[in-house]
Amino acid sequence: MCIAVFMWETHPLYPFILFLNRDEYHNRPTEPLIWWEGGEILGGRDAQAGGTWLASSRDGRLAFITNFRELQSIPQAKSRGNLPVDFLQSKKKPIEFAEEVVKEADQYNGFNLILVDVRSKSMVYLTNRPEKTGNFVTQVSPGIHVLSNANLDSPWLKAQRLDHNFKEVLARYGKDELPLKEMVGQLMMDTTKDDLSLLPHIYSPETDYDLSAIYIDTTRPQ
């Protein structure tokens, strides 16, 4: 489970800002942020499956992915973590890559994928669990967006809280330089949990409650 808030093409000093928390089982081996072999991709790596949840390239491209929260899964499904890597290693535009993935989207468990080319000012959202509109691929409009484990900008409480907190910081600083390092702690270390009656009721009540925080800390006593 992950959550991200990002601002795209809407601030005079920052074409793109991203804050992202990755939540994963502690026993899943992970490699830290490094330049990968060949020196073209920068990102953490899932040492178990070989993919990543967030990575960027020297030529101004970036991709990040979240799982879609659901009970059912596909046995022997393709690894979702390879999708960001495949995009960064390709020369395709975000929309071109997304349209290729759609052709085999049913071979993956549920995911949300953001593909960015900062230089061409192109950002695409791809999901294989589209809303009623049925759109697998959407051009992301300039503005502030939150992505968790449902569709982009879904009104989950934790997503709304993160969106609100981010906009509060922006309101204080206006068009001035932002304290990005301080914002990591202010926005992404929030352990507030929501009332059980207001949660989506996908897993057990205990699990849904734990997952309702922006920062999921399973080492702290409840």
Could you characterize the architecture of this molecule?
A 7-stranded antiparallel β-sheet has the order 3-4-5-6-7-8-9, covered by helices on one side. The protein has a 3-stranded antiparallel β-sheet with strand order 2-1-10, with helices on one face. It is of the alpha+beta class and 222 residues long. The model has no long low-confidence stretch (mean pLDDT 93). The chain has helices at residues 82-89, 94-102, 157-173, 180-188, 205-210; strands at residues 2-8, 16-22, 30-35, 41-46, 54-57, 61-67, 111-117, 122-127, 137-139, 143-147. The radius of gyration is 17 Å and the shape is globular. The protein has a domain at 2-154: 4-Layer Sandwich (Penicillin V Acylase, Chain A). Helices cover 22% and strands 26% of the residues. The longest helix is centred in the C-terminal third of the chain and has 17 residues, at 157-173. It starts with a strand and ends in a 12-residue tail after the last helix.
How large is the share of residues in beta strands?
25-35%
Strand order of the largest sheet: 3-4-5-6-7-8-9
What is the name of the CATH superfamily of the domain at 2-154?
Answer: Penicillin V Acylase, Chain A
CATH topology of the domain at 2-154, by name, is Penicillin V Acylase, Chain A
CATH A-level architecture of the domain at 2-154: 4-Layer Sandwich
CATH class of the domain at 2-154: Alpha Beta
SSE order? EEEEEEHHEEEEHHH
Main β-sheet description? 7 strands, antiparallel
Structural class of the helices, strands and pairings? alpha+beta
Give the integer mean of the pLDDT values: 93
- List the total number of helices: 5
* Cα distance spanning the termini: 19 Å
Helix content: 10-25%
Total strands: 10
Pfam family, one: TANGO2
Protein name: Transport and Golgi organization 2 homolog
InterPro entries: TANGO2
